[in-house]
Automatic annotation (TrEMBL):
Source organism per UniProt: Actinocrispum wychmicini
Identification of the protein by name: Enoyl-[acyl-carrier protein] reductase III
Leader peptide range in chain numbering: none
Molecular function per GO: oxidoreductase activity, acting on the CH-OH group of donors, NAD or NADP as acceptor
InterPro entries in alphabetical order: NAD(P)-bd_dom_sf (IPR036291), SDR_fam (IPR002347)
C-alpha cells in the first residue's frame, strides 16, 4: 500500500457534527462513485478518512481525505493498511467496504471460474480482515451491496453471487461481534445515477420512471445511510441489509 495524499480534519467542522468528529474510518473503493461519496460525507463530519483505491485516478479535489493505493482483495495488504492507519491514528472506528471489480456483463455459464473466485475474494476478504483487526468499542463495519444479491440481473451472475456471499458474511460477523459492541451491516442499492457517466441511459430512464421516488439512487443517497449507521444512535442496528433505492425494489 502507498499513501498518495495526507490531510487532517476539515476546517470549520465542529466537534458535534453527527457526533462523529474525531472518529477514524477506512473506505475501500474510495476514489470514485459511492466510495468517494462516503469518504466525503464522513470527512465533512470531522472523521479522519483513509480511502483505498487500486487503479482509479484520484479526484481533482481530494479534500481532507488520505488516499492509499493498494489491492483490497489481498488479505496481507489489507491487514497492513489497517495496521498502518491504527498506528497513525491510534485506532480504527469505522470500516466501509465498497470496492468491487468492474462489471462486464457475462452469462453465468460463460463465466470463467477464476473470475468468480476473484469477485468472491474481493467481496469477502476486506471485511473479514477488518473484523479481525477491529478493536474499537462501538466499532462499525459496513458493506456496500446491490440488488443483484437477491434479484437476477442479466449478465451479473459473478457479481451477484459475490454480493450475496457478502450479505451472508455480514450476518455471521454481526452475531460474533455484537458482544464486543461492534455493529456489522450492509447498505444495498439498485442502479445508480452517475450523471453523465451513467451507463445505458435508456434503461436508466426507464428505471427512474419506475421508481416511486421518481429518480435513481445517487452515491450521495447511499453515503447518507452509511453515515447514519456510523452514529451512536444506530448502535442497535445489527446484521441488517438496508436498501436505498427510492422504493424501486417494492415493484420487483
Amino acid at each position: 500500500m502507498t499513501t498518495d495524499v495526507t490531510a487532517g480534519r476539515p476546517a470549520g467542522v465542529t466537534a458535534g457534527t453527527w457526533g462523529l468528529a474525531g472518529k477514524v474510518a477506512i473506505v475501500t473503493g474510495g476514489s470514485r462513485g459511492v466510495g468517494l461519496a462516503v469518504a466525503r460525507r464522513l470527512a465533512a463530519g470531522g472523521v479522519y478518512v483513509h480511502a483505498i483505491h487500486q487503479r482509479s485516478p484520484l479526484p481533482e479535489q481530494p479534500g481532507s481525505i488520505t488516499f492509499h493505493r493498494g489491492d483490497a482483495s489481498d488479505p496481507e495488504a489489507m491487514t497492513a493498511l489497517i495496521d498502518e492507519v491504527a498506528t497513525l491514528r491510534g485506532r480504527v472506528d469505522v470500516f466501509v467496504h465498497n470496492a468491487a471489480n468492474a462489471w462486464r456483463p457475462t452469462a453465468m455459464l460463460n463465466t470463467p471460474q477464476d473470475v468468480l473466485a476473484v469477485d468472491l475474494r474481493l467481496a469477502l476478504h476486506p471485511l473479514l480482515c477488518a473484523a479481525k483487526a477491529m478493536t474499537s468499542a462501538a466499532g462499525r463495519l459496513i458493506a456496500v451491496s446491490s440488488s443483484g444479491a437477491h434479484s437476477v440481473i442479466r449478465g451479473y451472475g459473478a457479481h451477484g453471487i459475490a454480493k450475496a456471499a457478502l450479505e451472508s458474511m455480514v450476518r455471521y460477523l454481526a452475531v460474533e461481534l455484537a458482544p464486543r459492541g461492534i455493529t456489522v451491516n450492509a447498505v444495498s442499492t439498485s442502479k445508480l445515477d452517475k450523471g453523465p457517466d451513467t451507463p445505458n441511459p435508456g434503461a436508466a430512464a426507464a428505471l427512474a420512471a419506475a421508481t416511486p421516488a421518481g429518480r435513481l439512487t445517487t452515491p450521495e443517497d447511499v453515503a447518507g445511510v452509511v453515515a447514519l449507521l456510523c452514529t451512536a444512535e444506530a448502535g442497535f442496528i445489527q446484521g441488517q441489509v438496508i436498501t436505498v433505492d427510492g422504493g424501486l425494489g417494492l415493484w420487483q
